[in-house]
Amino acid sequence: MFYIPENRDPSLKHDPVKAIVAPRPIGWISTLSKKGVANLAPYSFFNAVGGQPPMLMFASEGFKDSAQNAADTGEFVFNYASKNLSEEMNNSSSDAPHSISEFEHYNIEQAPSKIVAPPRVAKANAAMECKVTSVIETNDVEGNLTGAIIIIGQVVGVHINDAVIRDGLFDINLAEPISRLGYMDFGLTSDLHEMLRPEFKE
Hints:
about 200 residues, about 15% helix
């Protein structure tokens, strides 16, 4: 099968692109509005984009609350979405009005950040405080704005639950991350195996 996105094969019930690009880490993003309302929402277009210094990005289909708040205030927090918080993460994906805090509405415990103003999810196994470095409105191949907004932030502070550190490593098996798959499916990490990068030999 081959198709171009604007002429999807009619046998495909839904757009498969997000199912093909999977699993994707979930950026559970907390922000503050200019009026001080704490917002919390999950983004499946999320990833790390640099190591030195550490940089994170999330992308929003339009200036939704998280993207707007991050652009307005220059700060956001990434909260680690895990199995034990999957219900809270999913609840926070609702289309709550801008004036409503998902933390308060869904009884999600928050904790203060150390450097940035937005709070973090208290029970998250990790959280990264970020300061915004770039706000990018994406174009298509014809130069038209797509409506997608990319927010890139530099990590300025890292919180880790000591319970998920083992032998000096952040242990994925203990942290139990939940990832976004295709459609409305989510996945858990299991059956890990280590592969060391080989050295090139002539």
